[in-house]
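Feature request, filed as a ticket because there's no other form

It would be nice if the structure record came with a short human-readable summary line next to the tokens. Right now we just get the raw output. Example of a typical job, pasted below so the devs can see what we mean:
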Amino acid sequence: MIFPVNIIGSSVLRKKAINIDKDYKNLSEIIENMFKTMYESEGVGLAAPQIGKAIKLFVIDASPMADEDADCENYKRVFINAEITNYSKEEVLMNEGCLSLPGVREDITRSEEINIKYYDENFVMHEETLSGFRARVVQHEYDHTEGILFTDHLASLKKTLIRNKLRAIANGKFKAKYKVRLADKKVKNVFA
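Raw output as currently delivered:
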């Protein structure tokens, strides 16, 4: 099943997600369908809030970026109850987009390296140090579970410049090649 992706303005995107346990209803099916949705939408990551579930779950397949970052080769993971335990002081500026903000791309500064602990789909605990693109995509998806969108990281002036564009997207004025779910009411404030 392909889930519709919630678009900016959907209240679930601003909720802090909750931890889950291995008995969460239909968890394996949700994970499988999140990967299907991510691939169908041509993304490299997808967080549960983007499919309407305020739970600490996200999936990543960074393999398409392997030509630019060899560490991305076969980097396909499920992150449950993830916690970033350390952010490096070294930061890198890179252009990002998001399935929940179709057509929007902006340069965002993020930590070059992070430490993260999480459970996989079998509820086995992992601790990893990630850098490069893997660190970036994990930070992006992790933010979704904290109720943060990548545009929240922009400077105030840049936020002012794109506010009307984001509001238009939130109110249905965009094109996407994948299934989406709009907010159920007119959106005025697009920033947290």
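Something like this underneath would help us a lot:
The first helix runs from residue 27 to 40.
The chain has one domain: 5-171.
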